[in-house]
Design goal:
The structure holds two protein chains of two kinds. By secondary structure, chain A is of the alpha/beta class. Chain A is built from 16 helices and ten strands. In chain A, helix 11 links the parallel strand 8 and strand 9. Chain B has nine helices and no strands. Classes of the chains: A alpha/beta, B mainly alpha. At the A-B interface, helix 7 and helix 12 of A face helix 7 of B.
């Protein structure tokens, strides 16, 4: 892509275990700080940060005029990662992956379409990408280029969802956890499910587990939210202060809080198991950072499974979906080609803008000269009409050259054409990255309009 | 061995063998659980029926009551295990226990035959405690055999779960809690029988003089089995000892019960007849003197060892 490369640096369930992922995980309240750290880098123009239970990724594009290379962008992201992990801890470079240019864009598309998820086709990831997009937009970390790319990713996700069967069926981390619970308890009709945390994941778990369970209890930091969720399933609600007492009643415990420390400790479970007289207790920890101390798994009759532990189960359950992957990947490829066209068009945009400005300037100057002399008598209304006429003439005159220039950019003739136009019309030398990411001027807008008249990628 | 016994023995063995293969095939490839369980159960039921017929024919042919002689009880234990398993398999929801029961029955069938045959003139026991003693011990051992099977599968399943290997074999074995419950129920069913066996054995032993080391060992193993099983049940109820600890206790208890039987089976044929008739918890047998029969003696004229 001729516009500066988008770079993705991160780790996911495929590259790093949960113990590593949780070190980099960023809770929502700390997201502004991370975005600020990224965008304050002299090379980074735009940034978005995605932190879910299965992945932590930063997406960046270069600052206009900085001439940043992919290596410099990746280095900027790694610096932020290292700052999060702390001075004394290190991330094994083998856990981190980097993608740049088209591969980075393909990666974003695949992530949003849930093709890179642990559970293929799961719907939560799109919501999580949207949340990341909203946060980046709110903190003015996104601009025209990366923002457009993420928007395009939403389109890809929607197409995959509607045009393929990738999301069909009921496979999810929660449904897999239910299957595992049934392998331990037989059925859940005599067993109580405790949800620790009342977020989206807890709700999904409640939907899967609630069907067959004897009772559902919800334990959350905020009691009103716990009560709201519990009410949906006819369960009881409580706050985290009573968690230890809740462990006496529950048989299956699903944790999904945003806490960065263990909510359930080994000592707590040891005491609970004594009071439970050894009755089996099964923890499903779907939060990152983890909420349940993994050492609890060592206690007799207690089993702790986190998201990584469920991966094998998920793989088995998803065999039916893999046939849909090829169709979904085809959609990604098609949309990637569309984005490529748009991005290349963006490379000739400065020339289009300059040419349009030059044309308008010439016509406006001539008009002003005429209005100042021979047509001095014209009333304001007529003068406005003439100004409007100049604008229309500029647009009509520039439509074909703009279209042809964009076509040429797709066909790799763009640079030659840009050089020719710059020379012929004495235009200023275009910067590779101009216009700036936040550009929204009239000429750029019109250029985009010309683009969309012909073959603009459809977003949103 | 007459022809009828021979045919029944072969058919019983084939049925148990087929059931074993069916259950093991399921454990290996995990396909068609419901079909396999149904077919396996039917083959096992056929085997148990043929086995019962074989015991009847053999005892009629030899004029020996099945409760009089070590060889019959060994065989009857195996047959009873099959019957109890078939009767309770739906309730305990652990069909795969058939993978233990079928080969155990097959092995017990041959073990009883290989260990020699009963004396033709057995049946001189005149004490009413003997049939009761043998009956409860045989029934108890069958229940403990099933509890042992459930406990063994529990340990396998628990180990897989602790190692987080929840694919393949883990998916084919019954749920962990179902195995724990099954083990507990079989223990609860077998423990009263074992207790009666202990009481009748002790009552009889008071009347006779203790024999050699083998008798002492049998006594020791019998009581150890009773104490272990009792501990498992009490600690489970009082202190929540369930799961792995209970499984180990059950296996150890069954192990001691089997050792008691083994001591009886491997006694030297040269050893003088023991004066102790019913000292063991599990096993019993009588000889022409009205006491325990020699175990390693060659098959008698009939040669019937069910």
């Amino acid at each position: 892509m001729s516009r500066g490369p988008i770079v993705v640096v991160g780790l996911s369930h495929k590259s790093a275990p949960v113990e590593v992922r949780e070190k980099l995980a960023v809770p929502a309240e700390e997201l502004p700080q991370v975005l600020r750290a990224l965008t304050h880098d002299p090379y980074v123009g735009e940034a978005m940060f995605l932190s879910t239970c299965n992945r932590v990724e930063a997406y960046v594009s270069p600052r206009a005029g900085s001439g940043a290379t992919p290596e410099q962008l990746a280095h900027a992201v790694r610096k932020v990662f290292e700052a999060r992990v702390g001075v004394n801890a290190k991330i094994d470079p083998g856990h981190l992956y980097e993608r740049e240019g088209e591969e980075a864009v393909r990666h974003i598309f695949r992530v949003a379409a849930s093709l890179d998820s642990m559970v293929l086709g799961e719907p939560q990831i799109l919501g999580q990408v949207k949340d990341a997009f909203d946060a980046a937009t709110e903190h003015q970390a996104l601009g025209h280029f990366l923002g457009r790319c993420v928007h395009r990713a939403f389109t890809v996700a929607k197409r995959v969802r509607t045009e393929t069967q990738l999301g069909a069926g009921t496979v999810s981390i929660s449904s897999v956890a239910v299957d595992l619970a049934k392998r331990i308890f037989g059925d859940l009709t005599d067993h109580v499910v405790l949800l620790v945390g009342a977020g989206e994941m807890a709700e999904a778990a409640a939907k899967s587990l609630g069907k067959g369970a004897k009772a559902i209890r919800v334990c959350n930091r905020s009691l009103p939210r716990a009560a709201e969720l519990a009410a949906q399933f006819g369960g009881a609600a409580s706050t985290l202060d009573t968690l230890e007492q809740e462990l006496l009643l529950a048989d299956v415990v699903v944790t999904s809080t945003g806490s960065s420390t263990f909510v359930i400790t080994k000592e707590m479970v040891k005491r609970a198991m004594k009071a439970r007289k050894g009755r089996t207790l099964f923890f499903v920890d779907i939060s990152v950072p983890r909420n349940v101390d993994p050492q609890i798994h060592e206690i007799d009759n207690v089993y702790v499974f986190n998201v990584d532990d469920l991966e094998g189960q998920v793989r088995d359950a998803m065999k039916a979906r893999t046939s849909e992957v090829a169709a979904a990947e085809q959609i990604v490829t098609t949309e990637l080609a569309e984005f490529r066209i748009w991005a290349r068009g963006l490379a000739v945009a400065p020339t289009v803008v300059a040419l349009r400005a030059r044309t308008r300037a010439v016509l406006t100057t001539e008009l002003e000269l005429t209005l100042g002399s021979r047509l001095r008598h014209l009333p304001e209304g007529d003068r406005a009409a003439l100004t409007q006429m100049i604008e229309s003439a500029t647009n009509k005159l520039m439509h074909t050259p703009t279209t042809r220039l964009k076509q040429a950019s797709v066909e790799e003739d763009g640079p030659d054409m840009v050089r020719a136009l710059t020379h012929l019309f004495d235009l200023p030398e275009p910067h590779e990255e101009a216009p700036n990411d936040t550009a929204s001027g009239k000429d750029v807008g019109q250029a985009a309009q010309d683009d969309s008249d012909d073959k603009a990628p459809q977003t949103h | 061995m007459n022809i009828a016994e021979g045919i029944l023995l072969v058919l019983t063995s084939l049925s148990y063998l087929a059931a074993t293969l069916v259950y093991f095939a399921f454990l290996l490839n995990g396909r068609g659980a419901s079909t396999v369980n149904r077919v396996g159960a039917r083959l096992l039921a056929l085997g148990a029926s043929l086995h019962a017929a074989h015991i009847c024919v053999a005892s009629l042919y030899l004029h020996i009551c099945p409760v009089e002689g070590i060889h019959f009880p060994v065989s009857v234990v195996a047959m009873l295990m099959c019957v109890v398993f078939l009767a309770l398999r739906k309730r305990v929801r652990a069909d795969v226990l058939g993978a233990f029961v079928a080969p155990f029955a097959l092995t017990a069938l041959f073990a009883s035959r290989m260990s020699g045959g009963p004396s033709a003139d057995t049946g001189h026991v005149r004490n009413v405690l003997l049939p009761l003693h043998v009956f409860v011990n045989v029934g108890g051992l069958a229940m403990f055999g099933l509890a042992f099977s459930a406990a063994s599968l529990y340990l396998v399943q628990e180990r897989l779960l602790k190692r987080k290997r929840v694919e393949g074999l883990f998916q084919r074995l019954p749920p962990l809690d179902a195995l724990d419950r099954a083990e507990h129920r079989f223990l609860l069913g077998g423990f009263p029988l074992l207790t009666v066996g202990i009481l009748t054995g002790t009552a009889w032993a008071r009347k006779v003089e203790m024999g050699g080391t083998a008798d002492v060992l049998r006594f020791g193993f019998g009581y150890a089995a009773w104490i272990l099983i009792a501990s498992v049940l009490v600690l489970r109820a009082a202190a929540g000892w369930r799961g792995r600890r209970a499984a180990y206790g059950t296996i150890a208890g069954f192990g001691f019960a089997m050792l008691a039987m083994l001591v009886y089976l491997v006694r030297s044929p040269a050893a003088p007849p023991s004066p102790v008739v019913m000292s063991t918890v599990i096993t019993t047998g009588t000889n022409s003197q009205g006491l325990e029969g020699p175990l390693m003696q060659p098959p008698s004229a009939g040669g019937i060892v069910p």
